[in-house]
Amino acid sequence: MKISLVTPAGKASRAGNRTTAMRWARMLRDSGHRVDVAVAYADEDADLLIALHAWRSADSIARFRARYPDRPVIVALTGTDIYHYLKADPEPTLRSLDLADALVGLHDLVPAAIPARYRDKLHVVFQSAVPRLHRLPALDACFEVLVVGHLREEKDPFRAAAAARRLPATSRIRITHLGGAHDDTWAAQARSEMEANPRYKWLGDVPGAMVRRLLNRARLMVLSSRQEGGANVISEAVVAGLPVISSDIPGSVGLLGPAYPGYFPVEDDAALAALLLRAEQEADFLDSLQRACAARAPLFEPSTERETLLQVIEAATARRSTPALSRR
After folding, report:
1. Which of 3, 166, 196, 297 has a Cα at 20 to 30 A from 188?
2. How do residues 132-164 score in pLDDT, each as one tens digit?
3. Which domains does the chain have, with CATH numbers?
4. Calpha distance 214→211 (Å, rounded)
C-alpha cells in the first residue's frame, strides 16, 4: 500500500509530531508499505492518508478526501487538538474528525475527551521506545532530575526549576533541562533562571542520542506540562527504567494509570518540591515509582505499537469499503 503521511512538523523539527511521524513511517515500511512523509498533502497518488494533527492538517485531510473519496483517511489526534482546538477553533478539527475513517489517540483517556459520536472510530496507539540493555551510572555529585520538553507555554517548562528553589540547602537535587526554546524570550528566561538558580541547567535542543543517554543516567524525570496528547518521553523514560513525576493531566494519567503514585497538581511547584524531596530521601518511594513504571513498560514496546498501527489501517480500510459506515 502507498501511504501519504502528513505531519505539520518539518524535517528539521525535533517536535513530538515529527518524531512520531518518522517512527510510524519506519514501522510501516518495515511492514512492506511505501510511505511518503510531508508537511502537507499535495495531490500525490496514495492509497491511504495518515494525518497527524486534526487542526493543523485540516486542509490536507479535506484535499485528500476530495481527490480520493473512496480511499481511507486516518487522523491522529494531538494534545492541542484535544485540549485546545476542540474548544478554541472547533470547526476545522471536527471537520477532520468527520472525514476520518479512523482516529488515533495516544493515551487511554482520549475517548473521554472527544465527542461521543466519534468514539467508534477511535483507536489508542501507545507510542513506543526502544530500551537499552543497561542503565548508565548515575552522577555521584548530585541527585540528577531530568526535564525533557521544549520551552513553550503548554509545557510549563520552568515548574521543576521553581520547585528546586524551594528545596532545603541539604538537598543534592539538580535539574537538567533538555529542549529547544520556542522563541528568544523563552531562551532568555532559561538563561536568567540558570544565573539565579544554581540547581537548574538548561542544555537546549539536543540530539535524540543525548536525550536517551541522559534518560539512562538520571535518577528521576519530571514532566510538568499543562496539557499533553500522550508524551513519548514518558514511554522513553519508562522503558529506560527511569521513574517519573508528572503533573496530574489526562495525557499522563492515560499513560501511567490512575493509581500511579507520582502525580502533582498542575502548576503546583510546592507539591512538586515535596515529591522531589521524597524521591531523594525515601528509597521506598523512589522504588514504588520505579515498580509502577515497570508495570506499564509492556505497553510501550515497539512491536505493540507497530501491530496496533497496522490494525488501525485495517479498520480504516474496512470502514471505507462499507458505504453505510463511510457516510456516518
Report:
1. 166
2. 767 889 999 999 999 999 999 999 999 999 999
3. 2-127+301-326 (3.40.50.2000), 143-300 (3.40.50.2000)
4. 5
d(CA 328, CA 320) in angstroms, rounded, equals: 11
CA dist 28 → 79, 107, 125, 259, 313 (Å): 23, 21, 14, 34, 10
Q: Helices in the chain by DSSP H: which ranges?
A: 16-30, 58-67, 79-80, 86-88, 90-99, 110-113, 159-165, 184-196, 208-215, 232-239, 250-256, 269-281, 283-296, 302-320, 323-326
Smallest CA-to-CA distance from 266 within 225, 320, 304 is with 225
Grid coordinates representing 120?
467508534
Beta-bridge mates of residue 124 = 105
State the cell numbers at 304.
505493540
Report the alpha-carbon distance of residue 312 to residue 72 in Å, rounded: 11
Distance from C-alpha of 248 to C-alpha of 161, rounded to nearest angstrom: 18
